[in-house]
Structures are given as structure tokens and as C-alpha cells.
Amino acid sequence: MKAPIIIVKKLPTAGMAIFPFILLKSERLKADKEIINHEKIHLRQQLELLIIPFYVCYIINYLINLIIYKKHHLAYRKIIFEQEAYRFEGDLNYLRNNSWYGWVKSI
Length: 107
Known about the structure:
Elements: E1 5-7, E2 15-18, E3 21-24, H1 33-48, H2 52-69, H3 72-77, H4 80-88, H5 94-97
Parallel strand pairs: 1-3
Antiparallel strand pairs: 2-3
């Protein structure tokens, strides 16, 4: 999956996927294959849910997690989409070799 990469120096995190773009905080992160793979996993998740519903589900999942865990970082890491992306960011063949909707296993 090819995705245009945009450098956004004021990005609050190292990387972010907003379909169809990958946003990175710095130029040097273009060489970080794991961050790029993590964001590509998010792009596929966005396609799986037809983009807008992904963002709605993401935010709802985060808010529910925030109520449960009461800490931003833990609530963020427990988002079902983040669980898949973090679990497989180091597997650079994940998107090629695995079926869609892998995040469903995190529910």
C-alpha cells in the first residue's frame, strides 16, 4: 500500500494516519519502517470501515476506555485499532499476508 507522506512539525505524536495520508512529525521518521507500517495498518482499518465510521468508532472506543481506565495513555493503547497496529507494526509483511478486519480479534 502506497500512501503519500506529509511532514507536520507540530504533530502531537510521531505519526498519524488520516486517509489517504500518513502524517509524520519529522522527515527522519520516513525511514522508520515500523512507524510507517503502524500507520499503514491504520489506513487499511479506515478502508475496512469506509473511513468516517472508523473515526467514529475510534473516538467512541477511546472515550469508553478513558472512563474505564481513567488515564489517557492506557485508554489510547486499549483502543482496538491501536492494539492491532502496535501488535503487528514490526511485521512488515502483515498487510500483505493477513486478511482484513484483524482488529476484530481485539474486541
